[in-house]
Amino acid sequence: MAALPVDIIVTGGTPAALAAKQATSTIPIVMGAIGDPVSVGIVSNLARPEGNITGFAAQNVELKGKRLELLKDLLPRLARVGILGNVTNPLLEVLLKRLRPTAEQLRVGLELFEVRNSAEIEDALLRLGQARPDGVLVSPDLVLLTKRNEIAAALAKSRLPAVYPFREYVAAGGLIVHGANLSVLFERAAGYVDRILKGAARPADLPIQLATEFELIINLKTAKALGLEVPPMLLARADEVIE
Question: How far is CA 193 from CA 11, 37, 197, in A?
Answer without folding.
Answer: 12, 18, 6
